[in-house]
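Morning. Coffee machine broken again, so started the prediction first thing and wrote up yesterday's gels while waiting. Chain of 979 residues, entered below exactly as on the submission form.
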Amino acid sequence: MKNKPFLVLPALRSRKGPHFLPSEGASMRAVIMAGGQGSRLRPLTCNRPKPLVPVCNRPVMEYAIELLRRHKIRTCLVTLHYLADEVMAYFGNGSEWEMRLLYSVEDEPLGTAGSIKRIQEYLGETFLVVSGDALTDFDLSKAIEFHRAKKADVTMVLTRVPNPLEFGIVVTGSDGRIQRFLEKPSWGEVVSDTINTGIYILEPHVLERMEPRKAYDFSMDLFPQMLADQAGLYGYVAEGYWCDIGNLEQYRQAQLDMLEGRVGFSPPGQKLGEGIWVGPGTQLDPGARLKGPVLLGRNCRIRREVRLSESTVVGDNCIVEEGASLERAVLWGNTYVGRKSRAFGAVLCRNVTLQSHASVAEGVVVGDNVFVGRGATLQPDVKVWPDKNVEPGAAVSMSLIWGRKWPGSLFSDDGICGLGNIEITPEYALKLGAAYGAVLPKGAVVVASRDSHPATRMINRALICGLVSVGVSVRDLQAVPTPVGRNALRNAADCYGGIHVRVSSKDSRQLQLEFLDASGVCIDRSWERKIENRFFREDFRRTPMDEVGMIEFPIRILEQYQEAFRAQLDVEAIRKQAFKVVIDYGHGHASTVLPPILGRLGIEAVSLNAFMDSLRVGRSGGASQVLEQLSSIVTTLRTELGVAIDSTGERLMVVDEKGGLWQGAKLLVLFVTLVMQSHPGAMIAVPVNAPSMLVDLGKKHGAKVILARTDSRSLTYTALLGDTRFHLAATSLGEFAFPSFSSGFDGMFAFAKLLEMLSATKRPLSDYESEIPEIHLRHYQVECEIAAKGRVMRALLEKLVDKPVEVIDGVKVREIGGWVLIIPHRSLPEMQMWVEAESDERLAELADQYRGLIRTLAQEAPVVAPNAPREQTANLPTMVSEDRAFHFWTSGRYLGVKARTLREFVDTLHYVDGDSLVYHLERNDFANWLELELGQAAMSSQVRQLRTHKLRGEGLRSALLALFSVENEEQLLNQGVTH
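Came back before lunch.
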């Protein structure tokens, strides 16, 4: 382009239909000046030239082209400099607008007049100059007639404005000849309200006044010279609309003027009612409330209870979720507005993601590709430059210009979750796969699996591409239930880990990416940090073509799972009972896995929703509706029981033969009871938010209940680490893992084990209703800014000095008639709170009390504590710091388990393998930790004496646990230890 003053683009395919390129004929030519950077419009113009900034969903330069075509000007030369390729790519040769466009691309800016001098040889007759970044509907034909009637050398098209300070003032005589002009005057210099619009009609000989390849400006150089020479310089005062769009306020005003009919152009789309325009393909929920003027682009999705009002513009392919509110807002294309988010008088550029409950205030401008987290607030007049990330709950009061602020963590408690194809895109997944592969050795093998949704297939393939690009091979299981993928990974000795992609069971619009270790358990926090570091630094190794990873498609995956499934069951006992059941498969993959197994077990099954339909997953009306339907069918058909398995195959809900519902904590207690009855002395792992009666049940049946952290990874890893000792790991969410078979939750196997245990007791399921007392347990979320969460937890402990507290996970305080557990959410601006009580009334009382306490502490100003150490209270359990915790090892390998309290230490002794116990005993690790970190000198001495007995295996475990006998348990585990 350096050697050519202009570029003629080849014929491009028109989006409007057949190719059309008008013949030039004798029509006047025009020059569109479109080379400016639009610096006063930033961040709107960071990634696009000013002529492509949209006004009512059309680039502003498109209106200029349309205006020229109205006045029979069909050939335009476009001068470009900043992001020239963007303009040329959009407008092409102009055939879509029935125009002929030629381009002059400047390497160095030559000014408004100098850029036209550069193309002088293509301007042989009278020509028109217009700005590509101003919006106007002037009658150009009348201006041309004026020019010709006056036989002018130059005619400046003028207009009158209330505030001329930002423009060039022009004073004309009665004949229209220009007498004086002044560029951007002060109020003391204002002598007229008539200003220069930047639209000129020129005779070609005027260009002879300038030297080639030299910068010239019309207003500063050429016109003053012509005025001094008394050349034919005239001004024509035009009537109509004109807006320069020189700053952000003028940009917002242009949108308003267009919608309110002040401009001689109609907004695109079909007009529905008064002041409402809707583009093709847009779906508008009947429950949405629109108050015109409002413009909706093409292929938008406007959900129920959305409120759009007062000159709001929504670009193409936007999604506005339930309860969101937009007022005087401008949204560019591909923008997502989450549930109950608000934007007032703001501009959101392309590919912006506004998560739920976010708030964007007056005057805010958000650049391209910005992610605004849940509950975040952008305060008035903040500018966010492109490619930034605002953390959930953040209150942004200053503009984000430099740097790149990412969320604190990619991972949540459920892996990586995000809106499908909005937050988790193929580009994102490709980068994520490369980051994961980069922390693995070259040549490693990873298992990949997914559910049947088209979006998960797309993301799964992108992840695989990222993995193989860094030299990691992939075994693609394709569409299988999550438990089947875990089973395949657990039994593949040469695999380093796995990824499973699925639609989230919590929100059908979100995707969930689970990263698994070699045993099939979700990766731990240290591995998450490694992947995050690689992802954010984009530190990916590149491999030669002959070293990229391989993609394999294993066979017989389902058959291997089914064989292992049956091998873990007492098949004959189940056959003898000849169960008749109803199963709701929830349109998930379990419908392809479970029926052959049930046939081998002699079970007569009535199947519901037993076909895969990814579009129905998570949209069946919720658990209550599913159970209500299941209960009706079970009682009608008189079957022994009914089960509902979720689409992932992991969770379970049950209905007994009388139609009684078993779900949540009640179902957890049932399974624990049956396991304890079937396996005397069983060991069971449950999270610390499980009903407190489970510990009492364990004492009653001679079993041991281990309390683990609330995240699924901690629970399943704990159970898997002691897979030869644990019989069950389960939660109150209908999740059950039997470690001897599975490394994770498996609703299909849990259903079969339920039948096996019922066949052993030979009692109907409804019999257990009377054995399980009523459970009063609820979960709450309490809003709390991320910056305040640590302070709130510290203040809570200080407030609870007189109450018994446990710190297994978060803070669990025991109250009269119940308990309250408070844990900061890992990534969202909220506290998770569980409350259990002896009655609903007491539960509501405790919930109100602690919700109010959290909110009060969150609002209190932080106080700088004195440096003097505080005296530790007797009611708080001794919890050492991370570096002083006891980390369990076996010879040469860290087991990934640490104990910061005496309770955690004793619980781990119950299930950690015997080799680890011998390893630490021989090194005196147990005794040293008890004495030096917990101040338990007497107990430390007893542990040292065990060395002399040369105990091994279960004998050593029994001896260690004997030191923590039931008689001493309350004293040792629930009370603090003074040093």
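The longest helix spans residues 840-859. Going to sketch it on the whiteboard this afternoon.
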